[in-house]
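Technical annex B. To support the medicinal chemistry partners, we prepared a structural model of the target in complex with phenylalanine, based solely on the information shown next.
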Amino acid sequence: MRTDTSPTIYRKDYTPPAYWVRTVEMGFDLEPSATRVATRMTLERNRAGRDRTLTLYGEELELVQIRLNGKALGKNAYALKDGVLRIADAPERVTLEIETLLRPDRNTSLMGLYVSNGNFFTQCEAEGFRKITYFPDRPDVMATYKVMLRADKKKYPVLLSNGNLIEQGDLGDGRHYALWEDPFKKPSYLFALVAGQLVCQEEKIKLKSGREALLQVWVEEGNLDKTQHAMDSLINSIRWDEERFGLELDLDRFMIVAVGDFNMGAMENKGLNIFNTKFVLANPRIATDVDYGNIEAVVGHEYFHNWTGNRVTCRDWFQLSLKEGLTVFRDQEFSADMIGTDSGRAVKRIDDVRVLRQAQFPEDAGPMAHPVRPDSFVEISNFYTVTIYEKGAEVVRMYQTLLGRDGFRKGMDLYFERHDGQAVECDDFRAAMADANGRDLTQFERWYSQAGTPRVVASVAHDAAARTYAITLQQSCPSTPGQKTKQPFHIPVAVGLLGQDGKDLPLKLRGSDLQGTTVVLELTEAQQTFVFDGVADLPVPSLLRNFSAPVVLEYDYRDDELAFLMAHDSDPFNRWEAGQRLALRRLLALTAAVRAGGGMAVDPALGESLRLTLTDDALDPAFREIALTLPSETVIAEQMDVIDPQAIHQARRFLRHALAQALRADLVDAYRNNQTPGAYSPDAVSAGKRALKNLALSYIGELDDAAAHALAQTQCDGADNMTDRFAALAALANGSAPGRAAALARFYQDFEDEPLVIDKWFSLQASARTTDVAAVRKLMQHPAFSLKNPNRARSLIFSFCNGNPSQFHAADGSGYDFWAEQVIALDALNPQVAARLARSLDRWRKYAPALRDRMRSALERVAAAPALSKDTKEVVGKSLA
Ligand code: PHE
Ligand code: ZN
């Protein structure tokens, strides 16, 4: 039990290691209740320093013995305290042999070596290797690994680790072994092993250079019919990185393994990626179009890490976004290129921005706000955040916006030329981008050092006589914890001007030779004015096209200007954005009306604008679907000074219902015209049609009448794929159709043996309108529920606490009591998952006093719980601070 408070680690305190590790040899005798790990490593003192203390980290290990240069070390030869083992005055060259004993069967944290459904898996990022052996477990220490695995042959027929299989054979007495060698040096967080009963789909491909590589996707036997999409995605990823960045797979063998118990999405261990089953397994029966897209993105993401993360890694964990922001950017670009069309790319862009606004903007405005390159942390696991990942990707995207695609590629080439095989900093990436393009990107550094979402306020002045149009941009950034005032950012603001005919004007920016109909203004001061010449008639400005920077852009558009942009903007992102701005305005007004106790009234203009979009057959169905999706309750909440979850919920429901009434005939047409007959295919065109059809179904469902029920029921009964079946079930679950209960029961029966589908079943009910705390508690009693499996816990508990705001924020505080109980229960099993759930109350200070006080009590209750992990302690501590 931990009684002291855990220390805060600061970026400024970084010092290079006193010793480098050159080689690591490990032997594992795998046994669930007692796994023996023998490690032999060679170390060399770092000549750049004078420190002679060898520092190793270890957690929850039984240390059997430790030998230095052949001699066993007695208890006095080293100091072991709080998970740090120090050997003072070590010689220049050291061979260290360490034997540890582990209990993987009792490991519910899912960090280090653990057992899932009878098989062995590891997870070492960020600091899990220290749960396997004592080691200088820090990313700037890179070594080559040779790994011997020994285990019972019947129970664990498959033995995998990083790199190449050198040798395998029998040991007699029913045991066997496999010896693996990874030719590339790597930090310990990229180590992995897998052992158990698994089967694989494999394929050999020829790489660009002509070399051959073996690709494998490993799963449990019953899942071999669900690996094809992951394999296709892997091959597409390999091809894409060869084409777009000239980066080739550097291994002869590349493996993906699926595991049902996993804290995160997936892990990029060198040559042996380990995936949450959610991001591997798919066939039309169990996976939706969204699942197919996510699998492609995550397979790409992990594969792209092989260069951005593994070949070039992070010096320390403060640099996490160096690999994560860059790799998310790469997977976003990959997914966009896989769709191929301009409008498909735009839909992907809009999806990514939606995630940013829904999750990252609130984080950046809350108690856990941190820079893309944090200055401090207590527990690094808490910093695998939307800021590091998604905002980090936006920061990388801005280089491309500023330097152009070719300039960005030059920067990437220089980055690898300089740093291949090294552990580096975010600053090194920025320097490569700057130097390769002869650009000064000094000010750009503030995107890494300053937290908070910048606000850019635009104002315009048209001088008809002088034919000039001036845009003035003013930037500011709110305070965040530890950062009261902010310096101006270097912000690329892409703009266009629409003439009165709705067409783009050719732009002449004064003092610049930029040409075209979109120009990127570089805002670097607190306030700057940009003048366009030759603008005779008053245009409508299209600002921040394609969301060229992760900022909030404010401009006082009139409603009719927004409708005009919705109908005409050549930039699809801003076409969508105009509709969102209009809808958000209405939703905020309706929310205010609910709060004032007045009646809600609909605005026919919004309905008409949406009708034009819905019925415009020149627009991709996928685009029409996102354009007709209203801002979420979370996004609306972020716009309010005091959040009123009930009023927001009522307002949004009212608007959806009103739109369904006004557009009913067109929705029915959209439903009929976007059927996808024939065999299911997850391609973007078919998926877009299904998305629009199912959006129509969900609007029609708002009417909750017999015709709506029949439509959903028929689709639910007849669907031959999960996308359609689940959409129909959702429509039933959110209404009062007589077949609701039966449909849910039947869905459960049909998919009882498919854990990923049962997750959907829990999740759908957790976020359904009528599901209150009592109903969630009842679902927790279901035999299929388990707190130990992260996917299952997320499907029910997280879906309720984060995805059902009006029920979670029940006036009596019962949602918060439930939340506190679950955080505490989860914390005893799995601190990382608990700490994520702990973040559901991040925004508590923004609620009305009655709710706020109840949330504070719940936070205090968790903070006071005995033996709380440092993960959860950091989160609730920062919330209450
Ligand atoms: N590095 C993984 C990724 O982004 C995420 C991860 C972090 C997985 C920590 C497990 C543990 O791809
Ligand atoms: Zn990643």
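Notes passed to the chemistry partners:
The radius of gyration is 28 Å.
Residues 660 and 699 are 5 Å apart (CA to CA).
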